[in-house]
Amino acid sequence: MRLASVLTPFNDENLALAAQCGVEDITVRYPGPGLEPLRSFQDRVAARGMRLAAVEGFLPIEKIKLGRDTDGAELAELAALVENMGRLGIPILCTNFMAGTDWVRTRLDVPERGGATVTAFSLSEAANRARSLNSASGEIDGTPVSAAELWENLGSLLREIVPVAEKAGVYLAMHPDDPPLSEFRGKARILNSVDAFERLVSLVPSPHNGVCFCQGSFASMGGLDIPATIRRLGKHIRYVHFRDARGDGPGDFVETFHDNGPTDMAAAMRAYRGIGFDGPIRADHVPRLHGEDDGEPGYTMKGRLFAWGYIRGLIQASMTPTPGP
Hints:
This protein is α/β, with parallel strands linked by helices.
């Protein structure tokens, strides 16, 4: 397994901190069309001895989700991105199929340990307070779409893009809906259960049609044994978002420090080791610590430093066999 991270902001100071803390792989948001923007990111990452391993966020896919890419412009741009990633040896493209939003929260300032703050979601508060994160505007598109339409649009996309990914040597990793609700503001959500992910990989069976195992999203589904779920999806997991959440299921949860939630994180890491996962495991959604009150929720750097050390320790510990009784 390879310790991975996004860097927000992506700058020389944060690149240096990542390298010093043992991060091996870097994830970037889609920088726009063309090879050179990706190559520029890759060169800066490589200069610090790390690998540009994944692209996620801000992808040209929103019309595709709604079945409105009538001229094929988004599909062509997405295919070009996959081809360019293949040329540069960037192995992972993390996608999602949340129509009209990215991840959504109703609170960005819930107190956690020692006064750090985390994000939360409450369905009862969502009508007035919901905010979409990791999107250009934070606004939520209100256009209705059904589950049947989403599955049809997803299948059409995969039939087109998986062969491109196979040829390019790029692995697609689908992120769960966050929150993993069945519907939000008139739009169905379809990637909200383990069964849904088994359906996803069966639509176009290929090693290049895989799963981003976001632990916090799966934990928010409610009632799942996370290590057992890792083993169940096993060979389909291409990329990991490592975080946790506590609460009463998809309609009511709060994020936590990586070491302060309900999931047995050491057991989860052993499960990744057990299925033979050797890809990027990214420190996801961190608390905002003292002095970072104006930082991007979930993506501040002080909390990320803590997460890197904790995850790196778990990775190393997972290499040691569990002692017997």
